[in-house]
């Protein structure tokens, strides 16, 4: 439970990070953060400890009793705003292409997809939004190190940089909690995902 995910907000209630329950309790105890409940009320460590644990809550047990695990914390002195640009990464390419092979048009689980360079790197292609698409393993093998024209394959649609914020159920590879939803709807959830390198 101490390694479970906790959403970290800046002073403006914008998500800036995901941390562990252990780190969240350290920040609460030191007065650097406040816990946020489902009614958007904030609590310091002592008042959070006094709340008590409901049946549906996860809790940490100590000598002095059970303490409810916070799912969202608010930093007291950090006011930077996270980037809103859609990051170029694997999850966002899959989201843009809707987990659909851009050559055969079939939808697959992420584990059965990979990323394909439309113009292969061996022919001068770059790792950019406009040159990378989802492809199934069979289509990727068939295309090989050729362009779609050379392989006599057709792209379903040309890849472009998305203008939207992908709606993801996973943040930074961790399952999000329902308490996070009101805060994640206002910024790009992919902020925490690693960017693909060119």
Polypeptide structure, described:
- It is a single chain.
- By secondary structure, the chain is α+β, with helices and mostly antiparallel strands.
- The chain folds into 2 domains: 5-83 and 168-192, no CATH class; 85-164, DNA Binding (I), subunit A, CATH 1.10.30.50.
- Helices cover 17% and strands 22% of the residues.
- It has helices spanning 21-29, 45-50, 90-96, 137-143, 181-184; strands at residues 5-9, 15-20, 33-36, 42-43, 59-62, 65-68, 72-75, 113-117, 132-136, 170-171, 174-175.
- The chain has a 5-stranded mixed β-sheet with strand order 2-1-7-3-4. Strands 5-6 form a two-stranded antiparallel sheet. The chain has a two-stranded antiparallel sheet with strand order 8-9.
- 24% of the residues are buried.
- Mean pLDDT is 83; it is low at 165-175 and 186-194.
């Amino acid at each position: 439970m101490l390694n479970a995910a906790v959403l970290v907000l800046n002073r403006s209630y914008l998500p800036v990070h995901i941390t562990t329950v252990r780190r969240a309790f350290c920040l609460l105890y030191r007065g650097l953060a406040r816990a946020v409940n489902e009614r958007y009320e904030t609590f310091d460590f002592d008042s959070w400890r006094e709340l008590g644990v409901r049946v549906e809550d996860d809790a940490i047990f100590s000598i002095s009793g059970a303490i409810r695990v916070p799912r969202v914390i608010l930093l007291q002195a950090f006011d930077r705003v996270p980037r809103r640009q859609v990051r170029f990464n694997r999850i966002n390419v899959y989201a843009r292409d809707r987990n659909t092979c851009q050559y055969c048009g079939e939808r697959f689980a992420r584990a059965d997809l990979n990323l394909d360079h439309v113009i292969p790197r061996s022919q001068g292609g770059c790792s950019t939004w406009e040159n990378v698409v989802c492809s199934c393993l069979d289509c990727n093998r068939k295309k090989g190190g050729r362009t779609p024209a050379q392989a006599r394959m057709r792209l379903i649609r040309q890849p472009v940089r998305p203008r939207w914020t992908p709606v993801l159920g996973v943040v930074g590879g961790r399952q999000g909690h329902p308490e996070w939803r009101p805060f994640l709807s206002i910024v790009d959830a992919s902020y925490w995902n690693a960017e693909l390198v060119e």
